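Troubleshooting log. The previous run stalled partway through. Resubmitting the same two chains, unchanged.
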Amino acid sequence: MEKPAYKIALLGAGNVAWHLAPALEKAGHEIVYVYSRTLANAEALAQNLKAAQATDQPDFSQTSADLYIMAVKDSALPELLQAAVFPENSLVAHTSGTLPLMVFEPYKNIRGAVFYPLQTFSKNTPVSFRNIPFCLETTDENAMLLLQKTAGSLSEQVYKVNSEERKILHLAAVFACNFTNHLFGISAEILQQNHLRFEMLQPLVEQTVQKAFSQNPFSVQTGPAIRHDENTIQTQLQFLQTNPTYQQIYELLTRSIQQKS
Amino acid sequence: MEKPAYKIALLGAGNVAWHLAPALEKAGHEIVYVYSRTLANAEALAQNLKAAQATDQPDFSQTSADLYIMAVKDSALPELLQAAVFPENSLVAHTSGTLPLMVFEPYKNIRGAVFYPLQTFSKNTPVSFRNIPFCLETTDENAMLLLQKTAGSLSEQVYKVNSEERKILHLAAVFACNFTNHLFGISAEILQQNHLRFEMLQPLVEQTVQKAFSQNPFSVQTGPAIRHDENTIQTQLQFLQTNPTYQQIYELLTRSIQQKS
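Second attempt completed without errors. Output:
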């Protein structure tokens, strides 16, 4: 694959920027600016980069970058967007999974876009971008081409996803990640209260995930609910009687599994 | 680690036996017999082994093995146990996660045990035993030593787990595996109905699992519920209105997450 080298300015020095900036450099791009409200944070990130200038002033009027990436918290974006000054017709992309493209609507002098890596980032956990899906959105065709080349230089999974679809992705992620994490928490709590280690379940959980992504998850459902094993279901409900919420979750998910079978 | 070589007879030629038998051989043990109700199945498995004799007769009275492993379905075990004939004082272990040690109670001439690998097996998916937790139970001290050596020759994770604890492990696995798989199914369905691919969520799900097992899952909870992001919660509930069960699951899990925070 050809490696297009773009000049990229990064607004934000948090978890996303922290991983994205070096990855973009490694892919051949040049990070020209790192902005953060806190200069020390911008400097800390810029230090790890070849030629990035750190700044706490979001005035980019005298700069020229092919792409301005706003990797800040959802709650901080509107304010920063209002404060920032970009050269006329700049391509400015945010990295949020939830903010619509519409946030750029009031700013007619720039081309707004979404450059959203579908993954959670934490500073100390290394990330391989190769398999991270990038969800891209913009109404400008040339801008889309540039975003696709940029994302494609990082990852093999690049998708056009509009704001409506991003909402659906987010809902699906709530079920597949947020809610499952809560079930892991309940499972861990049950084990810990009985002096058993949650780690014992790790191989089984990992296998469950592999199976779910290799086939339709509903088609590989196992357990007492799908077997209509009333004996086990009643015993397990009985065990949960000290926690009515967990009992309700057990009953409702059992019923939902049985509805699907 | 010393590699003790035991003579082992396998009763069953299903998924568990199919993976366990060659792994035991590789660990230095000798599989001397493979029993199956269907001779062809016993033969098919024995063919892959060095010196195993296939049989469809559960009469082991003229044999001498250090360990008889009954790797059959829960529903088939009681009948096979009644039909089988073992030499006096034989060590006979089942591989079930749900059957209690008590199933051996009526058979005073043998030493009953549990040799339970905490993983699901399917014939065509290769398995590495190294990380699979083995849950062992028996009342006989020498028998426990032999089971520990056998399990220890396969895996680095060997646990003494009594029948009551095994029940709790099973309940925890229902939450962490069966119920999460159902949530994966709902997530995949929502995406597919909107022409989006479930595979897009795989990196995020895998990261969620890694995080959940590296810290307390409750402490790494993310999403609209824990943020009390009522706006997103209401929008997402609205989206689910055509499916009352999914709506109920969303409401209940959101409430449960908030109770824990």
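Takeaways: The beta strands of chain A are 7-11, 30-35, 53-55, 67-70, 91-94, 111-117, 134-137, 158-160. Chain A has nine helices and eight strands.
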